[in-house]
Amino acid sequence: MMYPPMGLSDLGILHLLDSDPRPTFIIASTSVEASTPAYVNPALRENPVLRESIVKLSQSRHGPFWDWITAPSLSGSPATSGASGAPGAGNPRSFLFENTYWTRSLVHDEWVVISSNDQQPSDDLVRGAATSHNLDNSNSLLHEPTGPESSSEDNHGWIPSDFMPEQESFVHVINTFDWAGTPLGPLSHWPALLQQTFNQVLVDSRPIVIYWGEKLTTLYNEAFSKLCGSKHPALLGKSVEDAWPDFCDKIKLAISTTSSKHRAGDEDEWRFFVEKADGSSEEKYLKWSIIPIIDRNRCLGFIQPIQDATSMRLWERRTKMLIDLGDMLVTARDVKSFWVKLIQELEGCQPTYDIPFAILYSVEDDSQTLPMSKACRLEGCLGVPKGHPIAPSKLQLEESSQGLPASFRKALQSQNPLLLQIKDGSLPESLLDGLHWRGFKDPCREAVICPIRPTKEERVLGLLLLGLNPRRPYDNDYRQYISLLGQKLTTTLASTVLLEEEARRGRNIAEQAAYDQAMLKEKLTMQTREATESVQKFQQIAEFIPVGMCFGNHRGNIQFANDAWHRITGAPQVNPLSPEGFLSCVIEEDKPNVQRAYEELQRTLTVTIEFRVRRPAEDNYPLQHPIGSSPSFEKAGLDLDADNEGVRHVLGSLKADRGPDGRINQVLACLTDVTLHKKAAEEAIRKAQQAENLKRMAELATVGMYDMALDGRLLGANNVFFEMLSIKPFETCVVDEDMEVLEKTLVRLVKEGKSQTAELRLKAQWTETDTTGDQIVAPRWILATFMPVSNSEGVIQTFTGCLSDVSLQKWQFEKERQRKDEAIESKRQQENFIDMTSHEMRNPLSAIIQCADAVIGCLTKAQELVDTRFAKPDNNGVPKSPPADSSTGFYQEAVQLLKDSIDNAETIIACAQHQKRIVDDILTMSKLDSNLLSITPITVNPIHIAQEAYKMFEVEARRVDIDLTMVVDRSYTELNIEFLDLDPSRLKQVLINLLTNALKFTKNGPTRNVSITMSASKSRPDARSSSVQFIPRAAELAWQGDGLSWPVPEENRVYLMFEVKDTGQGLTEEEKSSLFQRFVQANSKTHVKYGGSGLGLFISRRLTEMQNGAIGVASSPGQGSTFAFYIEAQVPSEEAFQEARAAAEAVGHILKAPSVAFGTGISKGPFTMPKPTKKLLGPQIEGVLLVEDNLINQQITRRDLITSGCAVEVANHGVEALEKLEKTNRAGGQFPLSLILMDIEMPIQDGLTCTRKIRELEKSGHFRGPRIPIIAVSANARMEQILEAKGAGCDDVLVKPFRIPELIEKMMTVTKLLERVS
């Protein structure tokens, strides 16, 4: 006796059943406890449909399957046939229930274990095998059981031992059939080969039919009889013509081919309808072949085995319908359009066999009728006449407890489709009268209600009542199809609801952005108005004060001067006034002093000068009398009004502001007419002592005057001085911060013996009341002048000077500075807003273009597969022609659908490119209006720039059958031009605008030619050297450059000219006169027919004029148009030239483009955007680190890079990128890093900061290997932003939106360049 291993005896039956993958359950054998299963294993719990059927059966406790389960003994009771009548139902140990074979086992006479089996129980196979082994050499095919009443010699029957009841009944039909009336004759006369063949066919589980003899008499087995339906057994013994009148020709042709070759024929397939006992038909798809029966090189008959392909064909048909439905529904933009597209797709679905009728309702709350009640609104129906009672326009679900409303209420609470049947009353038969049945035109007996909800947790938004195919049973395949249909509707509706919510959110964001922009514009307008008012106030104050004031630039041009200044100097009132115009008013002797003062101003920024000017003959203004003049002048007999020989004495104080670059930006000069002061001083010196003269002159001065000893003792001062400083010395009145300035000035005074000036702040505040009545409080500023006084021996003993109160001017200057800072900040914010707008608009365009390219690649591959499938070469290598049978329509329809889809995807790309150009035009227009647009020249190859613009339109030109050519004129090559300094982005923008218009107005014409001609010259082009009339350049435009200094020297100047010529409809003189204006097109019909914004030509004109060029047009109606423009470029320096040449050679470019022929065009042919393959990237790029915060762009770019043959690691921001770098082979990790794609605008840490950190770590030796290539990928498109990215350490920049081939080309270029440098 063998004992089980240790531990095996501890295992119970439940352990075995828990691990069994077959569904199993256990019930008690007693009738009292058998109401529900006592145990259900995990495999049965995972099949909810089968489990629910078993639970319902146990609750009802009746039916053949339940009687078989609860039978007291397996051997003593007769076998009960299954409901389905399937094979195996007669076996007392097995039963067929729900298309599954079940085995019954009794354990300890107490528990009944019911287990399912994937195949028919082996007992049948054993019996079949036993039957087949019961053959002998007699004429009988199968022996009968031996007994006292039977004899093998007299009975040629077909009753084998141990056959199941159904087999016995089929054999009984065979035995009792009148074979004598057929060409085969009685059974006893059948040939042995026929008997043996038929015996083998009978025990085969496959449907098989035999055609015997010259008449091709029909015999078949039991499996085939089920395909015959109600025609069985009438088909036995019939010829093939009588048995299959519809298919006999095809069968006889296959038999003829097989007979001639003496080998089995190829498989074929047909659709077949089985007539069932109730008169209905069942749709079947059968695959068959012909096998000859050969004896002594003679073909005696044929065997036709049948394979049921119904499930596969139905699955293909239904899967295609689900795919087409999903493709249509994803285009819906809201729930309303979702219902419309659903009905349209169901209606257009071909064939219509699985959709005999359909009714779609949307579900909405109906709180007006009852609280929490639901109402259904009809959205569409198929096969239902208008006004039919089955589909009212609106249903109140709470009003009726019968019919469809009750079923709809039940469906609202269900997560799965709800089956309605006529036989159980859930589908009222009366409602089906009058329907226009689709498909097979047979009335439906069953229907399903599919609840449509975005997610399982959300409420039902729609109900779809769908009729079931009357010629197919509602089996597991049909249930799975309905389940997949419900899932497809759920997922697509969820996408539509999300898309609708996103659209609403987008509209809210757009409205908020428009509001913010309006508020910003209003704030800017208010600040501009305030600045204008301040300037006006300043001008009013300047005109009021008697001191002459003027502002000049660094070149000496006087840009502003008040009336007092003009009266004092006698200079003409012109703006601006040149230095020569001012010096002409100064007397000849004082001109050197004025010139020296300007030179001193460059060093000290503050100069005080005294000079004389001639009074013009027409000067009738009286000399300025000093305020508060003393009567001692009259006492001394001084005539202040006497003529002073036509000369004015002027005291000027000059203050210069130096800019960040060290150059003087602005000069302020305050001039005081001191003619009377000079005259009084001279008279005082001459008639009185020096002190008395000084005192009297001081009393007449408008500034504070003083006389002070070197030790700081005040010797004398005028009233103005005391008004400023009271009686306190400098040390107690000047603020502590300015004491150092005062001390240095006095030291310099004694050391140099020259007059000195200083601006000082006093501790006392300056107060003033403005025109609005508000009090102004500011620091009091004085302009102090120190003049040394020497004795007769030349020793400085005292110093004198004057104090001018410049608090008002200082306060005004401070205000102007604040306003200037605010204006600069406002300009910076506006520039940031433009950058943000560009970034947010370019990002989704990049995803759209890349997804569309991927779609084109996939569809092109699908088209190749379809062509390969239908054009597969035969044995001789000759391609087959498209099929000539019923699949021709499918082939043509499939090819046309693929072509249409490719065209649609290319249209998406064209629209995205058009939207990008509109975005560029709008942003360029905004920059132009805000004076933010600048020209940034770099060293480039002009032919490469033109080629890039040419390639952008090459695919579009071929799509609309336009012959697009590019010609480089000999004038260009004769100048031996390789590189020039120009702004490539602005040049390409003008070319894109002109090419866009040329293709737009040419694509509908009979002749479709567009050409680009590129030429160059050393002289400025004009009407004589060009075929167009150039538009006059705007005089107010000035060059705004960030790089080279302009204008360009004549010897380095090169003019590049481009002509874009088309064969479109042309322009009239009136239409040409309205071109190149903002938001203006040629005529009012242009926008309706061709679209556009009317900005392209206006922007093109501004861009060419900003580059010291011009644009023009030549056109005649019906003759096409020629648009030409030229720009001014510069020959680069030798250093820049060598750098550009080295860069071009490093990436493998040929400097002079060989692909551009002189006067040749492109070749026409089919075109597609290739899907990225592993051939695109070289072996030097193994792994890429993608740093991108936008998940959509991240997913798309990662997918295409993986497809292109490299490994990809992603990071959402800069910090995460640095962490990922530590896991690469550059830091001892496994990931093979070859290149980094770095976004710029990211949260947590932006791309530029991350790039700088990577370069720092490289310098410190933290990363191994050569320099890591970094390409910045961002929507920031301004040149200064691109230069900033390169300055941060990026090797190159790729601006969104871009296409994957452009990205791959950029990656290869950067990698090769770095390899060359290293």
Task: Itemize the secondary structure elements and their pairings.
Layout: H1 13-19, E1 24-28, E2 39-40, H2 42-45, H3 48-60, H4 64-69, E3 94-97, E4 100-107, E5 111-117, H5 122-132, H6 165-176, H7 192-202, E6 208-212, E7 217-220, H8 222-228, H9 240-243, H10 248-261, E8 268-275, E9 281-288, E10 291-295, E11 298-308, H11 310-329, H12 335-348, E12 358-365, E13 374-382, E14 394-396, H13 403-412, E15 418-421, E16 446-452, E17 462-467, H14 476-544, E18 548-553, E19 558-561, H15 563-569, H16 579-583, H17 591-604, E20 606-614, H18 632-635, E21 647-658, E22 664-673, H19 675-687, H20 690-700, E23 704-709, E24 714-717, H21 719-725, H22 730-733, H23 736-752, E25 756-769, E26 775-790, E27 796-805, H24 807-870, H25 887-929, E28 938-940, H26 942-952, H27 954-959, E29 963-968, H28 970-974, E30 980-982, H29 984-1002, E31 1009-1017, E32 1029-1030, E33 1053-1062, H30 1069-1073, H31 1084-1090, H32 1096-1106, E34 1110-1115, E35 1121-1130, H33 1134-1146, E36 1183-1187, H34 1191-1203, E37 1207-1211, H35 1214-1221, E38 1235-1238, H36 1247-1259, E39 1270-1274, H37 1279-1287, E40 1292-1295, H38 1300-1317
Parallel strand pairs: 29-31, 36-37, 36-38, 38-39, 39-40
Antiparallel strand pairs: 1-2, 1-5, 3-4, 4-5, 6-7, 6-11, 8-9, 9-11, 10-11, 12-13, 12-17, 13-14, 15-16, 16-17, 18-19, 18-22, 20-21, 21-22, 23-24, 23-27, 25-26, 26-27, 28-30, 31-33, 32-34, 33-35, 34-35
